[in-house]
Design brief:
Length: 264
């Protein structure tokens, strides 16, 4: 039986922007090898696979073109957009809950990730930035959070792939803009993930699970708005609630179809 597949642009209200995800709805679990092959064929940052449970929830797994990942915010938001209503997803990162409001905004409840200090050596060169533009670095949840001096440095960063891989290959480059009244966003970031087969991720929900607590620790606030400055671009609302981060965004369906190769 053919499986429905939907391509959704997440964290945007405009088609062909934000972060695209493939959402595959399965009637029963499929093999890991088959899902990985589908993700490689779809060739987006992540493809999500949904399997309904007897209790009305869904099992959810995410694959890049090369590996399975533990957490993916934008493909979870896209999954909620496809299914509609309030949804609970059972994942490798626990149970994730999404709610869709009347205006189409989707909120996503994810685990917060705190950052431990990390040395800055090598990061200027890894991002092709002048010496001194990387002002701090930390690590948490498998990510390196690299703070640069200004939003302009985020936008002009040009990662050197081999150097970035040597430093871990999962980097969030971020600037804190909370003190600049001329900027409408509290943070500006980009994410580079060559270790997972993604040179640059367009909009990264899981990255904001680090950014929100990081901003909270320096401002004392709990609610923020972030911009991801990739070529496609996107906006992510963030609210820190204890050890959770509530992300908010919208999504747009851009295509629907069927996988004609049955799950293995």
């Amino acid at each position: 039986m053919a499986s429905p597949i939907t391509i959704v642009d997440a964290f945007t209200d405009q088609p062909f922007s934000g972060n695209p995800a493939g959402i595959v709805q399965l009637a029963a679990p499929a093999s890991e090898a088959w899902m990985q092959a589908v993700a490689a064929e779809v060739n987006l940052a992540e493809t999500a696979f949904l399997v309904p449970r007897a209790d009305g929830d869904h099992d959810l797994r995410w694959f890049t073109p090369t590996v399975e990942v533990d957490l993916c915010g934008h493909a979870t938001l896209a999954s909620a957009h496809v299914l509609g209503g309030t949804r609970r997803f059972h994942t490798r990162s626990g149970v994730l809950t999404c709610e869709v409001s009347a205006d189409g905004t989707i909120t996503l409840d994810l685990p917060a990730t705190t950052v431990e200090p990390l040395g800055t050596d090598g990061w200027d060169g890894a991002l092709s930035l002048p010496a001194g533009q990387v002002v701090a670095a930390g690590e948490g949840g498998g990510w390196s959070l690299v703070e640069v001096a200004a939003a302009e440095d985020v936008e002009r960063a040009a990662p050197v792939r081999d150097v970035l891989l040597a430093l871990g290959g999962h980097a969030i480059v971020v600037a804190d803009t909370t003190a600049d009244d001329t900027i409408a966003f509290d943070s500006v970031c980009r994410t580079f993930v060559p270790a997972a087969g993604i040179d640059e991720d367009p909009v990264t929900g899981s990255a904001h699970c680090l950014i929100a607590p990081w901003l909270g620790a320096r401002t004392g606030r709990t609610a923020f708005l972030g911009r991801q400055a990739s070529p496609r671009g996107g906006t992510v609302g963030m609210e820190v609630r204890g050890d959770r981060v509530i992300l908010a965004g919208t999504a747009v369906t851009v295509s629907t179809g069927s996988l004609l190769v049955e799950p293995a």
